[in-house]
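Async update (no meeting this week)

Hi team, since we skipped the sync, here's where things stand on the single-chain job. The sequence we agreed to prioritize is pasted below, unchanged from the tracker. I ran it this morning and attached the output directly underneath so nobody has to dig for it. Comments welcome in thread, and please keep replies under the output.
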Amino acid sequence: MAAIGVFCGSSTQVSKTYLDLAADAGAELARRGHLVVSGGGSVGMMGALVAGCRAAGGRTYGVIPEVLYGREIADVGSDELVVTADMAERKNRMIATADAFLTLPGGVGTMDELFEVWTTGHLGLHHKPIALLSTDGFYDGLMSYVDTLVRDRFLSADARDLLRVVHDVPAAVDVLEAALAAGSH
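Output:
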């Protein structure tokens, strides 16, 4: 069993398609015996993720900053819920706790988490795999931009390859499991 950090949106305004995707991700991780490490909220995709995980018999570990505890309606149903002083401590705790990372669709907070874990991995501060779930091409624009960074030599191809882009939940979990089994990014 691995601890999988999942980054995703907490907006309550997103399409049911995204909520279902998050619930499916939580359920798939639970079925495969993984602990879901989340941002500690119980609304939007984050809420659907942990609900899907627990409905499939899985365990959850939430990390939420004090400032968002009430606003994001904290996931008090989590097997363990850690309240941090701020967003930076939240990210650091999630990075330290998780063995691998899965990024689902999300907004600026999700991007912040993705770029933090990607940057710290690129710098060699951890060697944990990262999967980017680009369902229905959600992250195609981002990856086009990243490819421009590689083309123009702002980013190495090796650093770009730390992001494993996948298009469905089972493939995302397969990629993370394979990387964890191999003991590498």
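Quick observations from my side:
The mean pLDDT is 95.
Strands lie at 3-7, 35-38, 60-65, 80-84, 100-103, 130-133, 163-166.
Reply here if anything looks off.
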